[in-house]
Amino acid sequence: MKKIGFDKVKLNSGLWKTLQTRNEETTIYAVKDRFEETGRFKAFSCDWREGEDKKPHFFWDSDVAKWIEGVAYSMINGKNREQEAFIDSIVDMIETNRYDDGYFNIYYTVCEKGKRWTERYNHELYCAGHLIEAAIAYKKATGKDKFLKLMFDYADCIYKTFVTENSASFMTPGHEEIELALVKLYEETGEPRHLELAEFFIDKRGNNDKDLEDECGVNCLYIQAHKPVREQREAVGHAVRACYLYSAMADLARINNDAALRTACESLFDDISKRKMYITGGIGSGFSTECFTVPYDLPNNEAYAETCAAISLAMFGQRMLELDVDSKYSDVVEKVLYNGIISGLSLGGDAFFYENPLAYDKPVSAEYDRQMNAGGRHRTIRERAKIFGCSCCPPNINRFFAAVGDYICGCDEETVYIHQFMDCDINLGDESLKIETQYPRDGKIKITYSGGRRIAVRCPEWCRKIICHVPHTTRKGYMYFENTDCLEVEFEIRPRLVRAASAVIADSGCTAVMCGPVVYCAEAVDNGDNIGDLYILKDGKINTVESTLTELCDLEADGARMAEQRELYADYMAELEPCKIRLIPYYAFANRGASEMRVWLNIR
Amino acid sequence: MKKIGFDKVKLNSGLWKTLQTRNEETTIYAVKDRFEETGRFKAFSCDWREGEDKKPHFFWDSDVAKWIEGVAYSMINGKNREQEAFIDSIVDMIETNRYDDGYFNIYYTVCEKGKRWTERYNHELYCAGHLIEAAIAYKKATGKDKFLKLMFDYADCIYKTFVTENSASFMTPGHEEIELALVKLYEETGEPRHLELAEFFIDKRGNNDKDLEDECGVNCLYIQAHKPVREQREAVGHAVRACYLYSAMADLARINNDAALRTACESLFDDISKRKMYITGGIGSGFSTECFTVPYDLPNNEAYAETCAAISLAMFGQRMLELDVDSKYSDVVEKVLYNGIISGLSLGGDAFFYENPLAYDKPVSAEYDRQMNAGGRHRTIRERAKIFGCSCCPPNINRFFAAVGDYICGCDEETVYIHQFMDCDINLGDESLKIETQYPRDGKIKITYSGGRRIAVRCPEWCRKIICHVPHTTRKGYMYFENTDCLEVEFEIRPRLVRAASAVIADSGCTAVMCGPVVYCAEAVDNGDNIGDLYILKDGKINTVESTLTELCDLEADGARMAEQRELYADYMAELEPCKIRLIPYYAFANRGASEMRVWLNIR
Known about the structure:
alpha+beta; six-stranded antiparallel sheet; 25 strands; about 20% strand
């Protein structure tokens, strides 16, 4: 199975159409403005000098590269053509300021000249990877190949340094990304050296003295270099690095039919999805190092769950699906799509969360949060910010939202697979495919297909009742329909209560409310303060109600409220008063000012 | 009201008799052995040289001083006389190695010679304070005054440096302790300079440029030097430092009848006891800096709640009681006495907790905990250790347990006050007082008194039914009995459920079980794994049962168990199976190997 690229997909309506349009019309410009202000674009001119302000950071190349990638994808979708000249000017700056051997990196050109390939943790290859991805996207969007050629040369330079000469101080990068970029480059150029270089970085990881000599304990785990990748079975370390690595591993498992890599990927995906993933699809619960910690360590207030990490999990899941059409992969992608990724962006489309906690306690003041953090607790910002110093997430949203069509369908010779349900037209050349749905507001899916292949439709794991009158067989969570040109399926969507594993101590005694793939939360702005005094009634009703906030529904659950207790400790005499609990989609939280919030609610 | 010192009190039976005996027979020797092994005693010879191992740490003087104080108190109780020669030898070393001006500090004599009075954070005055306390105790125990004379000279040296010459780099210490020690010294010697020096440190704190110039933000709060002490209303910073300071403030408020100091102390005590104290009396929830954080931030797994901090709160509460006989102070002292202090010592008496969490999740491995900690979560050790590098708590237990009699009674001209209920004889010279009780195993108290004063007896805040047939009046939580030579009171002790304030998010949806002043907990060793799947039944029974672990009762509560869920997320279909939940006194947790534990339990 190969994915059907987003360039073949035209979204027509629904939540993701809204999000994509907002990205193309607002978010891309919001990010551009912030990058302009902070000097990220100008940095490509490589004329910063010591003592000046706006000193380029070692990951600025990648920030801009992701933004270019996002703009390029939106061009393919027919938007943002007017950005072309601006991007051309950036490409020109890269051409002007690169070294003769093809090398380009702002930080090691203007800040730490001479330290090229000596600092494993300073994102040098990570930046290269993102520039390569941007160049590929830009070529697709414009047909212009200058950027791509520059990156071709850069890849040659990297090949020479790492493979031919082995002259860098390290052998594999401190932040993965180059690996999956090189696979993409190989698939674009067909140049075997690009694949070989990707294999080199994968094979050498955790497998050579240079990788291990100065990194032991935490650091080796942190960058997934603690052992050869084929022996890795548990997701460890920085979550984004991990899933970028695992994505490349899955790519190579597919391309090379590498059973050992595939086995490792399967275990790693299971370890994440069965033991280390928030109900929102968020991953990397460890706030102090943005990392995976241990199974079932999923605190809510202190969740890190970086937006980029959610994106990286979708990328990994998507690639696993190409190895094996099993809904366990596309279910996780769906979870991330409707929760942990989109929570990172404000409803207005111009402000961001880097972290995505699953609970906020009562906002008091920034000084309060600061004091709590000083004590070792972690409280993140409580309202989405326009910009972050570390600004990886906003342009990652740009490129992900523009290319979300990538996640909908795939095909092989016999079958067209429908993984995600979005209202869209898909151009398959001779064949056409139309999906009509208002999912996830509504579970009805109508599929119209002109072509000779069978259709496979994912059955979402959360669905308890599927209405479908067309004969089909089911395998690995997909319904297979033979000889069908039109079919209707309905996945009954109704609010339901979810319990977390006993081992998740943070969720003990609690329930989460979901409706279809969407996780809900309760905010104080709707329910009054002390969300912790609210109880969902296990046998109560949960009704869907119109939302003023999102195009999905809100929920209203039968609940009970315990009277507020102000005394620190008192006799347990709480009487419960019946009440209604208003729930909004999790992703829409913190759009009405700082407010107490919980996903996991008490239950009686 | 002045306390009646422990030297007038002879414990006869009961929990605290057991604890005191164990301290005198086991704990004091366990600490001595560890101090011997680590070179703490030998360090007093001041012959350590650079390059040798066992480099003296800047707080070693204080560790040994607290141990000497504990041994001295136990001598007064008639134990450990054979340690006298050993302690004499330490005193001799101090005499030999002190400077001509009276100065003595191991670290600044052998490690950082020449840096005397330049490093505010290196516990120089803290060590001096503990040496002074030890010298006073040793004089009381033995009648020998050499140690005390040395400390008299040392106090003069400090006076000259800080008051006369103002020649130190700082004006008030980075770790308080000297203040309360100087008040004690003044009360022993009657020398006005000692009181004046204590006043100096109190008055100057947060009130001068030297205090503030290089410490801003966290650090100033951390050491309570962010504003003049009389303006302080909220407990901030390192909890032990805070309560040592507040104790000295309360002393001076009493001695000098200083209304501004008293007002500050009242607010600070209220802030702690009403907003920042665990149900165990533990304080300082911030693990990363051992500090108070913000009101109601009382996480259970990540509780810091240092044993020393609990001790310091008892010290503060005791001094507040001398300012105002109000049971709100003695109730807090009781809470600490039966929970947060004694949890710091193993039942065997020879192993310690520095931190006292209110929950442990399932033990997996030290590596698991390490990975969790690396992610920013805090998991402390799971079994009491024989020794800590930072070993302030074990000798603090030595001195506290030996002198616990200090907390029982007080008197003024008209009244004899009974604050804590322990089975004991109290020698008041012409008068005698006998308290017969098995409290807190049983709530009956029999008081026999020969003397003309009235008797005041604290009514514990947790008690809902007092049986007493003797006429009395009640004021500020104390029952006052006139002309009584024998009286019986019974405080009905029965298991009860406690709820925490709505604002304590860590305890939302949960209840704690107490019986009298004793907090209970559930351990997996009694209840099986997944304590988070247990529910106390709100309307169920809780019976007392014999304990094999402690001399108090265990409890058996009607509860329900939710079947273990292994899937990370699943439909909420939990059926509850009735079960019994075994509860043991909190202080006895982790005495049967590493085990899951919770104080705050789910409730239905």
